[in-house]
Design goal:
- It is a single chain.
- The protein has helices at residues 3-8, 13-24, 29-42, 61-65, 112-116, 119-122, 166-171, 175-178; strands at residues 82-84, 89-96, 101-105, 108-111, 129-134, 142-144, 149-157, 181-188, 191-198, 206-208, 212-215, 223-226, 233-234, 239-243, 248-253, 258-260, 269-270, 275-279.
- The protein has 280 residues and is of the alpha+beta class.
- Strands 2, 5, 7, 8, 9, 12, 13, 15 and 17 form a 9-stranded antiparallel beta sheet that branches.
- 42% of the residues are buried.
Amino acid sequence: MSLTTALTYALPHRLLSSMARSLAYSDDPRVSRWLIDTVTRKFNVNLDEAANPDPRSYPTFNQFFTRALKPGARVADADPRSLVMPADGRISQLGRIEAGRIFQAKGQSFTAAELLGSDEDAKPYNDGLYATVYLSPRDYHRVHMPWTGTLRETVHVPGRLFSVGPAAVNGVPRLFARNERLVCHFDTSFGPMVSVMVGALLVSGVETVWSGEEIPAYGDRITRKDYRGQGIQLERFAEMARFNYGSTVIVLLPPGVADFAPQLGAECPVQLGQALARLR
């Protein structure tokens, strides 16, 4: 384990994230411009794709960070049977859920039940598929639907806020099952589907298109929200949620319904809308 990763165990995660939130939402132009300029330069952010390419016109860093893309900057895969990539970033890992476990990195794994916060919720995904997509600070930070689905339930699972960068993924056991996360359950034409929005160090919030800000408020127990009967349906490729700082989204699919696009693998850079998998 690297020294930096080891130090994250001792860091005051909540305090640091609260401070980051205050800075991200500050409308002081000296603060917002400094943050925007720093991130744009350090991470080589491509503003040509943004609906608003002028970094000085964003009143807060958070509005810059969750910026929309210009029309046509991303398109859904042309095959109507393709489940599409939910976000820009890179594949951390993808594969089959074996014996209920999801592979994180060499020597590291966690169970689907731990990730979802429930043994019962994990049952439909036994021997199914998982894809973990890491969004770096330079990426577009809105998460979209892989396939058309009707929202059934969300589950807010409290936890730590470790970094989700490569060093932490390799060094922190059960990382994605320990960090705070929002589990979004959907019913689709092929059965259930889950998208998990995983929080991270300095992630100041997760927002969904159906209810706004979900993280924070921080809690000390699992919180479920039942959306059955409310008719919240999101189309394939439609925006689902957004991170207010970089993090990770994990998609789970039940067994026997789809196969991953053959060109995908660990550490593969990906873009929103490209083929993630194809229905059988």
